[in-house]
From TrEMBL:
Pfam families: BTB. InterPro entries: BTB/POZ_dom, ETO1-like. It comes from Zizania palustris (Northern wild rice). One of its GO terms (biological process) is negative regulation of ethylene-activated signaling pathway. Pathway: Protein modification; protein ubiquitination. This is BTB domain-containing protein. It comes from the Eukaryota.
């Protein structure tokens, strides 16, 4: 939805932004101009809004029903099925746009993993999702706790050793040959205990004490079996002690090949564990993975997989890594990841789509995902995601086949892809027929009316978009289309009111961009500056006007038409906007204040509070980390560290940081953090009184006028804390 405004901009180069008059923008450098002279062509381009994207998510028709079903299945299913169910729950929340809940489901999938392979896949996925959050792991270590998902698993200790020894009876099991057999490898002779060597596997037993000629020989030539004298001596020692001595990787690979050839499972297991300890780099993992897949070594393959996944997404730029995942057969996938093949390719597809949704690599991973799907819900997700990629690649015939397969399997949302494809062929009537068929068979949803509106014109289009908003107010496209339509009719203020409807409860960068345009049309440059600064807070590298100019450049241009505020003005504006709960305005003021020499730690912290209130957790965490970096004192830094830990689900560790801060200096923020964390981490009935006392201590501490002016807000949060405690106590009772 970035291609929104002003087609005239195509003639204007970014490099000339400050040197040439801009016909596409209703202002020139330092000199306002009238919007009327530009309105006809400028506003017309607003109508060229792209259609809403066909989202590559699992979007069931009944979210409540599917979540209830998953919950029910989790309570009754065997332990080895829990991770797959939590993965499905993750995709449901991802389709709803609930980042925090989807992260929680992923964490549960990792915690409930029943195999080492699942542990590897979900651990790597969590690490990928938490990219940039490595400082949190450092904070946890400072509290004496480690973030387990960031650690590589110790395969040697976590995979149990099975007993592979062949049983034999010393009294009745007669060995016809001499008790000692010499194995000749070129010029070397290695003496071995015939009985112990035979016990390594059934084939060796048959060779050394069966109907073969070797069972009567005292010297057996092993020169053509690819084993060196050093390797054979190690095998002899292993037959006596059950342990391999320290050897180089090359020699262990020789022994592994020998063990695979003669079906020595215990020896093979020991070799795999030894080789796992040699994997120190991506190239080591690539080299050993090829060997592991060829010789069906599941332990070694899992150890290699862990190292490769630990380097996501960077490792997918390596052709050797991509080839391993792309070319793996069904048997090789089983060796590499056991029964977690679907989970693995879910992760790889997710990473690859976020990098380049139309690449060959993405398509190959999605094809493997389809192959790995084992039940109806997995097939719905895999087929729909592959169909979306085919659609983006303009492979319309295959996209239609896949959307149809997903729709037939039960994924109702895939009808959107089928409708778009019919429309591309000029058959909008068939698109409407498809949607009407779906809507007549069940209770219609908001996205159905939104999609239907795409194939209608005039009042019918607006009527369907209004119905879409009525059923699902969170859909962005209807608001933007209505606002753009009003701008086309010169009803700028009405357009502004329309876009404010969604910005009142959902912060969307594209909507801020559209409102920025409305303010320019009204020549309200102060308000336009406010929105572009809010955009930069949310997305510092955001590009506007169809991606052709950076938000920073537009801000510079608009700033020259606005009177600059002093530091005192900024504080007054921040107080007024904060008090009136104008969160977007507050973000803008803070952005401007951060350019000065003000106390950046405090400002970044205020910024994080606003972003949390606006449901922008990622941007809020970024601001919190910046607050920590710019803290003016140790006790202030401890408070920010406590909030970082609290917001990432580590309440007890956040509490520790609050107490450490209070020990240095009593402050409003430290007491408030302690009260909040204590209320969330303790079920003790006496906690209520403690929380009240902590909040009273907080209000008695010095603080800036901004925070003191929010007594009503503290009261609301205090009520929320007490309600939380009461609900927990009731639930436990």
């Amino acid at each position: 939805m970035r291609k929104l405004f002003f087609s005239e901009f195509t003639s204007c180069k970014e490099t000339k932004l400050h040197s040439a008059p801009l016909s596409w923008l209703p202002l020139e450098k330092g000199k306002p101009s009238k919007f009327a002279g530009h309105s006809s062509s400028s506003i017309e381009s607003l109508m060229k809004m792209p259609e809403p994207a066909v989202l590559p998510h699992f979007k069931p028709a009944d979210y409540v029903g599917i979540l209830a079903q998953i919950h029910e299945e989790l309570e009754s299913c065997p332990p080895d099925e829990k991770s797959c169910l939590y993965l499905l729950q993750f995709h449901v929340f991802r389709g709803l746009g609930e980042a925090k809940l989807s992260r929680r489901s992923l964490q549960s999938a990792w915690e409930k993993a029943s195999t080492i392979h699942e542990k590897v896949v979900f651990g790597a996925w969590l690490k990928y999702e938490k990219k940039g959050e490595e400082p949190i792991s450092d904070l946890l270590r400072s509290c004496g706790k480690c973030s387990q998902e960031f650690k590589l698993l110790d395969f040697v200790s976590q995979i149990s050793t099975e007993s592979y020894e062949i049983s034999y009876d010393d009294g009745s099991d007669v060995f016809w040959g001499s008790p000692v057999v010499h194995l000749r490898i070129r010029d070397d002779m290695i003496a071995c205990d015939r009985r112990k060597l035979a016990a390594l596997s059934t084939p060796l037993y048959a060779m050394l004490n069966g109907g073969f000629r070797e069972s009567h020989l005292e010297v057996i030539d092993m020169s053509r079996n690819g084993i060196s004298p050093i390797g054979m001596r190690a095998i002899s020692k292993f037959s006596l002690s059950g342990r391999l001595p320290y050897l180089t990787a090359d020699v262990i690979l020789e022994i592994l090949d020998f063990a695979n050839k003669f079906c020595c499972n215990g020896l093979k297991d020991s070799c795999e564990r030894k080789l796992a300890s040699f994997i120190c780099s991506r190239q080591d993992a690539i080299d050993f993975m090829e060997c592991a897949l060829e010789l069906d070594c599941s332990i070694l393959a899992a150890a290699c997989l862990q190292v490769l996944l630990n380097e996501l997404p960077e490792c997918l730029n390596d052709e050797q890594v991509v080839r391993i995942f792309s070319c793996a057969s069904k048997q090789q996938r089983s060796t590499m990841v056991g029964n977690a093949s679907f989970s693995l390719y879910c992760l790889l597809s997710e990473v690859s789509m976020s990098t380049n949704a139309t690449s060959d690599v993405t398509m190959t991973f999605l094809e493997k995902l389809v192959e790995s799907a084992s039940d109806s819900r997995q097939k719905q997700l895999a087929l729909h995601q592959l169909a979306c990629t085919r659609l983006l690649r303009k492979d319309y015939t295959e996209a239609e086949r896949l959307f149809n397969a997903a729709f037939t399997a039960g994924h109702l949302y895939s009808v959107v892809g089928l409708a778009r494809l019919a429309s591309m062929r000029g058959n909008k009537h068939f698109s409407l027929k498809l949607l009407d068929s779906v809507m007549s068979s069940r209770w219609p949803l908001g996205w159905m009316y939104q999609e239907r509106a795409l194939y209608l014109e005039g009042d019918n289009k607006l009527e369907n978009l209004n119905k879409a908003t009525e059923l699902d107010p969170t859909l962005t496209y209807p608001y933007m289309f209505r606002a753009a339509s009003l701008m086309k009719r010169q009803s700028i203020e009405a357009a502004l009111m329309e876009i404010n409807r969604i910005l009142g409860f959902k912060l969307v960068v594209e909507c801020l961009e559209l409102r920025f345009c409305c303010y320019l049309a009204l020549e309200d440059y102060r308000a336009a500056l406010c929105d572009v600064q809010a955009i930069l807070t949310l997305a510092p590298d955001y590009r506007m006007i169809g991606g052709r100019v950076t938000a920073k450049q537009l801000r510079m241009l608009v700033t020259e038409n606005v009177e600059q505020w002093t530091t005192a003005d900024c504080w007054m504006q921040l107080y007024d906007r904060w008090s009136s709960v104008d969160d977007i305005g507050s973000l803008s003021v803070i952005y401007q204040m951060l350019e000065s020499d003000a106390a950046k730690g405090v400002l970044y912290f205020r910024q994080s509070l606003l972003l949390l209130r606006l449901n922008c957790p990622e941007a809020a965490m970024r601001s919190l980390q910046l607050a920590r970096e710019h803290a003016a004192s140790q006790h202030e830094q401890l408070v920010y560290e406590g909030w970082i830990l609290y917001d990432t689900g580590h309440c007890e560790e956040g509490l520790q940081k609050a107490e450490a801060s209070i020990a240095i200096q009593r402050s409003f923020e430290a007491f408030f953090l302690k009260a909040y964390a204590l209320a969330d981490s303790s079920l003790d009935p006496s906690t209520s009184a403690t929380v009240v006392s902590l909040l009273e201590d907080a209000l008695h501490c010095p603080s800036d006028r901004l925070r003191k002016g929010q007594v009503w807000l503290y009261g609301f949060i205090f009520f929320h804390i007490l309600s939380s405690i009461i609900l927990k106590q009731t639930y436990n009772a």
